[in-house]
Known about the structure:
Number of domains: 1
Strand content: 5-15%
InterPro entries: UbiB_kinase
Order of helices and strands: EEHHEEHHHH
Strand order of the largest sheet: 1-2
Family: Belongs to the protein kinase superfamily. ADCK protein kinase family.
Mean pLDDT: 81
Helix content: 55-70%
Shape: globular
Number of strands: 4
Number of helices: 6
Oligomer: single chain
Amino acid sequence: LYFLDFGLMSEVKPEIMEAFAYGIQCVLNKDYDGLVQAFIATGFVSSPIEYRSNVKDPFGVGSAEQMSAELSERMESVPGGTSRFGALSTVLFDMGNNWRMYTPPYIILLIRTFLTLEGIAGQVDPTFNIYEVSLPWAIQRALSPSTPKGA
C-alpha cells in the first residue's frame, strides 16, 4: 500500500497495514489493551515497552497494562478522543515524555496523511469521524488478511 500526501510517498508493509487497521478497530471499541498491541506491531512502541516516571530518569521496562490505562484515561478525557485522529496525536505527544515511542518514516507519513484528511473533511463536516470512515477498510483487512499472522 502506498500513501500519497502532496508529493510524499511511502510503502507500507502488509504487517503494518494490518496492525494499523487493528488499531482503528481498537480506538472505535475503546480497546486500549489492543491499541497498545497495535502500537507494538507497527513499531511505534518497542517490546518490551519502555517507560520512565520522570523525564530526567532513564527509560526502564514498562508494562502494556500501564500504558493502556494511561491511554484510556487520556483518550476519554480529551475532546474528540475517539473520533479525531488529531486527539490521538495530541495524547501520544503528551505521553511521549514518559513512554519511548518511535516514529519510522511510514508512521510520520500516515499521521500527516490522516491529520490532513481529517482537517479537510472537518471543514466540510464538523461531525466527521476519521475512525468510522476508516472502519470498512479495517474490517476488510481483518477479514482478508494478507499475512500469515493476520490469518
